[in-house]
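Fold this sequence, please.
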Amino acid sequence: MADQTTASATTTTAAATEPTTLWVERTGTRAYTGRSSRGAEVLIASQGVPGAFTPGELLKIALAGCSGLSADFPLSRKLGDAFDATIRVSGDADRENEVYPQLDEVFELDLSELDEEARERLLVTVQRAIDKVCTVGRTLKAGTKVTLTFDIDAIDA
């Protein structure tokens, strides 16, 4: 039985260290499904398609999710594991240039149990955590190089 436990732990560790593979597959006209090697799926389509996100919406959600995950440890340390948080994110696209010139996040928290000084200290700590470890936010602020190649022989006929 110890051998099974060791083998299971080794397999879990190996799976955790394997890089996640990401891809999208076309599922219809202007519709794709985003997939990960961990089994996650997200529907991606044009605006107005029920049950699907647009690429821009996914960008915004990635930013808000990254901020939340980055802030989770300092918040749970101070507020406990059961705290509620909502991060709203918005920003209109500049359709002429096809960019989002500004994205705005609003982090909604109930800090009513803390005095003003404790609130300020916590918010400074949370902001520092987000600024330090939110890869999505840091990438958006810094900009990034994006490359595109075509592998035309990979498509099965």
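The mean pLDDT is 91. The two ends are 48 Å apart (CA to CA).
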